[in-house]
Fold this sequence. Notes:
Helices cover 42% and strands 15% of the residues. The strands form 2 sheets. It has a 5-stranded parallel sheet with strand order 1-9-6-7-8. Strands 4-3-2-5 form a 4-stranded parallel sheet, sandwiched between helices. The protein is an alpha/beta fold. 51% of the residues are buried. The two termini are 28 Å apart. The chain has helices spanning 22-35, 50-62, 81-88, 100-116, 131-147, 162-171, 188-203, 228-241, 250-262, and strands at 6-10, 40-46, 65-71, 91-94, 121-123, 153-158, 177-181, 214-215, 272-276. It folds into 2 domains: 3-20 and 129-288, Rossmann fold, CATH 3.40.50.1100; 22-127, Rossmann fold, CATH 3.40.50.1100.
Amino acid sequence: MDDDALWVKRDDCTGLAGGGNKARKLEYLCAEAVTQGCDTLVTGGGRQSNHVRMTAAAANRLGLACTIVLAGDRPDHPTGNVVLDLVLGPDIVWAGALDYYGTEAAIEEAASRLRAEGRRAYAVPVGGASVTGALGYVAAADELTAQVDDVDLVVVADGSGGTHAGLVAGLGDHAKVLGVDVGTRPDLDDQVPAKAAEVAARAGRRTPTGDVVIDHDRFGSGYGDPTDDCREALDLAGRLEGLLLDPVYSGKALAGLVAARRDGRIGRDTRVVFLHTGGLPALFAARYATWV
């Protein structure tokens, strides 16, 4: 790949509570919550969720209450994002082992409980992956095309799929986005194109062309699993560019980019943007203490 054919879009530097791509989604989600007169944000994710950290921070900035549902058991010694969650101070519901849709159900259950108590709760899905949240990445696609001429491909981690869907809706073509599955959601191949079409319609854009492109070979045995190619990607970014990635999302996304370049799916002259979605606190989680 030519030196001038690869850029990094630094959404890890968005500023809110350590940065990350969720700030763009929360801009739209929180605006909708405030417009609806809500007083509490309710969301959830895995124990080391970046999304719940940033949702709690956004609630604090806006003077809203926040309840987060974490799919796991309370740790004896908080590490990584859990430490930051405790600093930010949302109400935390430790929900035990849950899969993606179990977590979604637990978010709705928590929101319903709060409403029954007289609160005006606004439920935010895992990763902020609603049509409203994904509008943030329609705007990001416009921003990106104004910054870099003739972008051929954007490479991004696929957790809940909302970022991928918003980018496709903004760029108008599935072939322009390579999503790298990190093992969060089991039905990305169906959900990303469906959501992209919904988001495009909401944003007044044409329905995206082409077929969804997702690499499902990077997440190992499951979400958050340490993998050799992720570690290689972390080392490459850190030692060649001084760029720090995380082991759950951005490291696996870069591993997908590297694999696609090596096997020829990304050509030498392809103008590529790697979307750095943040997530650095996960590097300090106990799970990765011996891996790194």
